[in-house]
Records
---
Amino acid sequence: MNDNNLIASVALFSELYNNEKYTNVTDILAEFIKGVVVQENKWATNSTELTYLLEKVYDFKIPESVVRTTVRNRLKDIVISKDGHYVFNTSIKKDFETLNSEFISIQNKQNTIIEQLLNYIEKLENNKITESEKQFVVENFNKYLIDNGVTDKYSKYISAFIIKNQSNINFTTNLNLIREGVILYQGIKYTADINELGKWNSELTIFLSTEHLFNSLGFNGLLYKQIFDDFYNLVREINTSSKNKSGQKLINLFYLEETKNEINYFFQTAESIHKGLTALDTSKTAMKSILNGCYNPSDIVTKRIKFESDLNSMGIHLKEFKNSIYDHPEYVVEDESIMNELKTASEDKGKYFDENLCRQFFKIFTKINYFRGGESKINFEKIGHIFITGNRFALYLAHQSKVKFEADDIPFAKDIDYITNKFWFKLKKGFSDKSSLPKSFDVVTKAQIILSSQLNQTVYQEYKKIQEQVKNGTLTKESAIEISYHLREKPNKPEEISIDNIDNSLEFLNNDSYFEDLLREKEKKEQVFQQTLRKNKELEKELQKRDTEKMRLETLEQENKKNIEKAKFVKASWKRYKKKQNFNLLYSFFVFIITLLPIIIGFILRANRRLSTWMESIGDNQIYIWLFLALILVIEIFGRSYIFNKEKVKYGWIWLTNLNNKDQRKEKISEFNNEFEMNNN
């Protein structure tokens, strides 16, 4: 198969399908038939050769019956048909030029995207990709777009590349054209009667796996809920249409006992986690949803009852299988030799093979085979029973030829995208209204789901790893808690994968020693932090020392300034005090002299000869002089407190007695110092 041609072909098919010029898929197939006739110059041909040429030129593997129907119904005006042979009118050359031009344009766009992808991978790998490796990348990219499997290594690179460019409208439009074209191509390829499009006519019982039961009620996040709702709405549309005619649903949704047991185990584990008996694995989104809002174990029981009630209200019921699967050996899928063979093949590729899980899926496949009556080599629409799951291991087992019994058998299990695509094509829903398309058709959604699945698987493995390391003592509990914290920070819902966190997510997936490096980096940062802390402490100590010295100098300066001001204040105060006291002393002398003045006058009158002679000359009249002086003396003695200021006299004499008293002076200066301190506090 030339996947490059197929990719361009399906993209062109989708682009033409969105063109109003064409009314249905057979109109577009007719254009491709005309294209191979012109390109291969086969103007006279038959349906067998046309079928071969469609595969040769466009890599389309179309049933010959569909080719015959298309030529007969859509090309009858330009084809002469006789005895199974067709002769085409050469006028179709004009149409071929347009078709071929669009085909080449699409190839060029895809080559540009592939070149960008190769550059992106080289940048991530930091290494030049060899030519053989480039071819391998291109093959993986093509398989990725047509849902035909891809290696884990390149699926994460391709998914990251798509998410990085999701805001580029032209980029996503070109890739989504391929996705939509694949749906159309596979619809034609696996449809027995192309004229039956527009309705679903057969009964189909679909058994839902555990993850789809959780998805139906939003336990695994918004994106998975939207994908399930897209599928569920198509089921309802088919059933609504069929009820109008037959009164019975054509599509029935069930789940098996094995799935119920897994659901019960989930809720029991949730109770153990709530009680602290089991650690929460954050890669299990549904488990976190169960625990969310539950404050008591009884809340989990209530949520379990509501879960089953909600499923019933959606028409999703338990399908009991009353007999043992081994009662019908002709339908038993389980086989030890097949399981051992598959295990060996997986381990040779370095992949873990879970025998217990394999047996569980084999039991489910046996029940599906029983319900089918052992008939799987028929058209999908007539298959009657199918198990849908997102579990990669289950899908791997289901598609093994030895498990299916025959290579051409319809597998016992398919993913939900496959069923949604089938319904969408069969009902002729179209792609013109992009807002109404199922979420799973979007290439960005596919990228988010793949990366989310890989991240959750890696997180799960890391949890197991740290539990073992703690148990054997190679990892401390503190480091385990640190790693667990980082694991909880990883996006585990598809809708959480974005341009903002894609680089970190890819680094986590690529680095096997991610957390060892993280712990080493943390230890290194801790060492740098401690060194910085020590330097900061030393610097702080030095600054404190400088600040202390600065404060000491400022204090000394302030104290000196204060002392100078104090000295000035004391000096001025002492000067004022001394002046005041000297004045008091003079006043005291003045009072003393005034008081003694009559006595002094009397003494002078007696001591001075001339005055004494004069006094004798006036005779008895001198008595009046002595009486006057005596009166003055009496008045001064007894009325001095009213005539003179006692306080000034008192302090004047005190000052006189302490003129040479140094202690008195110190005491007064001390008072002035205290007064200064009180005034400045």
---
Amino acid sequence: MKTLIKNILIVLVFAGIIGCELEPIDENLVTFDDISNFPDKAEGILLNGYTGLVNQYSFSEAATDDAVNNVLNNNYKRIALGELNAQFNPAARWGNYEEVFWVNQFLDIIEKGQTQWSRDTLTNTMFEMRMKGEALALRALHHYYILQAHAGVGQSGQLLGIPYFTEFIEPDGNFNVPRLSFEASVQAIMADFDAALELLPTDYGLSAANVDPWYSNLEDFDYDKYGIVNDNYFDLRISGRIVKALKARLALFAASPSFLDSQGYYELAADNAAQILNTIGGVAGLDPTGNEFYATDANIQSRESLWRASIGGNSTTYERRMFPPSVNGNGEINPTQNFVDAFPMLDGTPISESNTYDPQNPYANRDPRLQKYVVVNGTEFGGGIINTGFGGGNDRLDSIQGQSTTTGYYLKKLLHPEVRINNDGTAQGKRHASVYFRYTELFLILAEAANEIAGPDHQVDGISARDVIAAIRNRAGITQPDNYLASITTKEAMRELIRNERRIELSFEGHRFWDIRRWGLPLNDTAKGYFFDGNNYIELPSVEIRNYQSFATYMPIPNSEILKFSEIEQNNGW
């Protein structure tokens, strides 16, 4: 962690060099104290807290039962095959402490009260409120990322969380801080989120009638001045709405079987989710295009994205990685047969219980999301027909090492369907955006939590797990009435259905890797494939055999931190 602080100081020094050709002189170096006197520079420290946010493009599914990566030295492939250890862990997030220290430095600036954001007293107060709220929320969020990746049962046998830092520490300061208990870590994150909620606007660009009381009750409140501070120009920054959604996500994580298995945290998750969802009309507010939030400019800008980054310019980055080779991609992520089998029949019945599923016509009368998310044999995609079986050329299974599918499938989800990559190297790119939180995830948080509280029909602020799953499956195109859903009457059966819907709806967005751990599911399910030999479809039972240690439910603390800091306890087994 000392290295992180040194990096922060180096960045600030270079930011202060205003154009020296040889050696900088003292007047050209900006210190932390100097920055306090320059609002734009002080805000720049806060904005560093927006780096390191987790979006949908990790492709960690290659280390789960949902996908195989065809690049032999891919880091997630390596850990799935047995290389995960305290020295090598591509899912580590210990580095997010850098963002924690950035926002702690900003909070020090706020506490000193030396920075003037506006000459007007009211406007200055509101700027300070909002940005302090942002900093507290971001500090909580980065601690959550670290907790998700490194919480676990320690060598002492106790369920441990992480060190929680609420102050900036100089490089020569004390970083040798023990991990809090898991629940104490959760409570510390919640406390920061709650403090942020008292300072942030619920949304940016609110009308005068809807301004939050902690702003409207300020002495001599003026809506025009409020607009300067909290206009919708700031829409992509963290808000009270986003913080409540993050609280729901944290509470569900804490409540899960591998951690606290707690009714109280399920209730907290459900309550926070329901509060937000009822502001968009409950299940009626489920975005009809939300399951293809990446597919068009209109979908990217739709209400499905509860929190996203700005929309980038035209690009082909992910399509070049994922498109099949015949349309000039590298076919990197290959969904498994395990994942394909998770999609029910069109009437909503799991294929394992359906008397109409035909393994020799496997994609007929299936959940329409299958064709939206996976390139199956015979799919038109990327400007060509993709045949992964006999006669498929470069798209055929195992045709070109490192490019052709290893499972019989290519990825379609997250890729813009109108991108074209031409044979001459030119391309027609499309716009993409990093998404940090989708409303569909919030609906699924409510469904999971409400069901764990009291079963399929337990309502939280008027919304039940059955209501949510019905709306999601209806949007997907499952034939109505959904008789399979109607047949679900127990908490246990609904739990399995919710987990399956979450697996499908949030697929390839980085959730599965953590979900199977918080649920305590097996990590070593063998990745399977499917191949058309010209006459028949043949199951490939062992495309990739997974090799996680028995204790890999809980991920390791980086070994470098254990060696440096005697107070940090390693998770058991690592």
---
Amino acid sequence: MAAPKKGRRQSAPGKPGRSLVFILIALVALTGGMFLSGNTTPRLGIDLAGGTSITLQAKDEPGQKKSAINPTNMNTAVSIINNRVNGLGVSEAEVQTQGEDNIIVNIPKGTNEKQAREQVGTTAQLYFRPVLTVASGEPTPEPSASSSGKGKGKDKGKDTADPDKATEKGDGKAPSTPTATPTSQGRAVTDGLKADATPTPKASDKGSDKDKGAPTPTPSADPATQALQKKFTELDCTDKAQRGKVGDGVKASDQTIACGKNSAGQWEKYVLGPAELNGKDVDDAKATINQQSGAWVVNMEFTSGGSKKFSKTTSKLSQQQQPMNQFAIVLDGEVASAPSVNTTLNSNAEISGSFTQESAQDLANILSYGALPLTFHEQSVTTVSPALGGEQLHAGLIAGAIGLALVIIYLVVYYRGLSLIAIASLLVSAALTYTLMTLLGPAISFTLNLPAVCGAIVAIGITADSFIVFFERVRDEVREGRTLRPAVERAWPRARRTILVSDFVSFLAAAVLFIVTVGKVQGFAFTLGLTTLLDVVVVFFFTKPLMTLMARKKFFANGHKWSGLDPKRLGAKPPLRRTRRATGSAAGPVDPKEA
């Protein structure tokens, strides 16, 4: 007797209304979130929405004896550029090689397209250089002999004046620990740098003029330094053309000049020393929120070799006065950030300042993905029209509509009244898929491309298959002679196992395909996996509860010929219940005539 009771508990109908209310609340919440986010359509990929295609040509570094353009370095560059672009949230961006020395970058049209184009163009090596001099980004006028405050040379005056000016422009925020030094000399996103380290004693103020003035180019220096000083004086960082030529032909071991923005968003120019570290010395960089201040910061982690170099460099910088206690993070001749140092830093460091989320992530991406093994020049930039993709999408939607229509016709002809449950389930599944795709656009940068559309079309068959499995199990129970309500509850456990196994196989295939492929094929795999999960949700929380409610209606319970559950049409056996025979004599009354 225990086994039948256990079976009845497993097949108990429960309260189907609760499940339907749950799925209704989920639909309303997702739809409301979609409208509140301001995005009512999915984000489209480059093949559907258009975008930008950039061709980069690889160049060897100046002075190299052997060419570094080889398949290994090109593939490494593709990986770094892909991480850099997609790190900005430009999902479905395609990065691939073309020929021996070209890389093609396709960026879909979107909110971060402009920012991604800027970072794709900045393909030079990432360097950490000590700051020697900083001044306003405009050309420096020649000082007169009677100018006050200039001291022995014009550069000394710049070193003294500009920090005061930058301090006035800064945001006035000071780090909460004594190991940080606020500065506004760098980009607007950076005011200081700090780390958990023991402070290194600073040099005394006596003799600081000697320390501060020694590295600064002076008119009495050698010809190379004089030439650098002339370039620095004439450099106009407000001119984009001049900024683009600043880093051309500069080696890591050379002193150089560079441009960068201060905290007020104004251009400043720098004289920088030889590179102490490069991008390969950075192990990782992430934009996070400081738990104490609640402000956005960038956390850097260095490799073992990079930690030693960074510790040695910051030890020297911490004993200097501003601006010579700063190190510039330079990418393609532009100073991305120039934090100051007043303590020796080791393997971990935190860059803090007036960051926004976007600017912190921007700097973290530069630090993480800035070290390219080659120098690249932008060969061409073209705009991709969505016209061809639109035609393909139109054709794909027509194919999907035809397939959906054929599925519905089959359901109506074969399952009749049950097709209403299947069609309602398909509509719920479609609504959930659309809202989730729309919300996943801004959330994880999911973009809908042609392969993703194909994945959604394939999902129609997967969803319809689940309904068919359930319906056939119910009809098998009716054929055995059971009434509809117990037939539904007995059929569900068996159908449930089959549906879960089938969906697990589909999801596993989608997951493997997503992991082992790249580019647009991942869009197909992601959509297939998403719709497979939604199929489980819809069948469990909508189709089964709705079937339980319909089984209580006379139209289905009495086996109407249009219900799809007509016992005669299904070839049902006689009812399982049998009348109990009399317990008395097995023989009936004797006919008097026979007696």
